[in-house]
Amino acid sequence: DTGVSQNPRHKITKRGQNVTFRCDPISEHNRLYWYRQTLGQGPEFLTYFQNEAQLEKSRLLSDRFSAERPKGSFSTLEIQRTEQGDSAMYLCASSDTRKGLAGVGHTGELFFGEGSRLTVL
Amino acid sequence: EDQVTQSPEALRLQEGESSSLNCSYTVSGLRGLFWYRQDPGKGPEFLFTLYSAGEEKEKERLKATLTKKESFLHITAPKPEDSATYLCAVQPPSDYKLSFGAGTTVTVRA
């Protein structure tokens, strides 16, 4: 098990261009989350998948953002027509909701990748 | 809406100087409170989950405690390698996603 993998690690783009990030979760984890983190702030929730179904999207996720998780394995996060305000670290995390704690259910332990840093010029 | 407030924003310690970080939260019910460590340019690394008031968990020089309104992360006799940003997050009973605080950046000088 190599952990959550994200690429590219760094992306510099010009305003108006499209970018795509990829996340490979820990194998057999059924949940996959995308978060965004700006300097000096904690991660902010964007969206999550259970298997291939996208179950929730934050209002932070404008129409320019789209995420997919085909076949319930890796996920992609695409940002269209990037803006300078999109500059941030994009974090992916995965978890296994089938593991519980004495019947309590999902422990909530999210395993994060190293992140993809986006700079929009 | 869930709110998580961490204090102080930054903490500078001498090696061996013990201290505590605070995480206060407002959430309608609590499934769990989580502590993560984040090194510069890297993703958060899981440390602890606390589920109920009075619970304590330890890992090396770190000890996390939980009350009904806040959690503390105690760092005992810190070393320079404990320098990092420590993030607190809450999970409501109705959901699995985490809401994070802004973090406390700890710097330990030798």
Structure keywords:
heterodimer, A: 121 residues, 7-stranded mixed sheet, B: 110 residues, mainly beta, 6-stranded mixed sheet, 5-stranded antiparallel sheet, 0% helix, 56% strand, globular
Order of helical and strand elements of chain A: EEEEEEEEEEE
Q: How many alpha or pi helices of chain B?
A: 0
Number of strands of chain A: 11
As an assembly, this protein is heterodimer
The biggest beta sheet of chain A is recorded as:
7 strands, mixed
**Beta-strand proportion of chain A:** over 45%
Structural class of chain B: mainly beta
What is the radius of gyration of chain A? 14 Å
**Percent of residues in beta strands of chain B:** over 45%
Could you tell me the number of beta strands of chain B? 11
Mean of residue pLDDT values of chain A: 90
Q: Give the C-alpha Rg of chain B.
A: 13 Å
Low-pLDDT segments of chain B: none
- Secondary-structure-based class of chain A equals mainly beta
* Shape annotation of chain A: globular
pLDDT < 50 runs, ≥5 residues of chain A: 101-105
Mean of all residue-level pLDDT scores of chain B: 94
Number of helices of chain A: 0
Q: In percent, how helical is the residue content of chain A?
A: under 10%
Q: Name the shape of chain B in a single word.
A: globular
Ends of chain A: how far apart? 36 Å
Short structural summary:
With 121 residues, chain A is mostly beta strands.
Reconstruct the topology from this structure:
The complex is a heterodimer of chains A (121) and B (110).
Chain A: E1 5-7, E2 10-13, E3 19-24, E4 31-37, E5 44-50, E6 53-57, E7 65-68, E8 75-79, E9 88-95, E10 111-112, E11 116-120
Parallel strand pairs in A: 2-11
Antiparallel strand pairs in A: 1-3, 3-8, 4-5, 4-9, 5-6, 7-8, 9-10, 9-11
Chain B: E1 3-7, E2 10-14, E3 19-26, E4 32-38, E5 45-50, E6 56-59, E7 62-66, E8 70-75, E9 84-91, E10 99-100, E11 104-109
Parallel strand pairs in B: 2-11
Antiparallel strand pairs in B: 1-3, 3-8, 4-5, 4-9, 6-7, 7-8, 9-10, 9-11
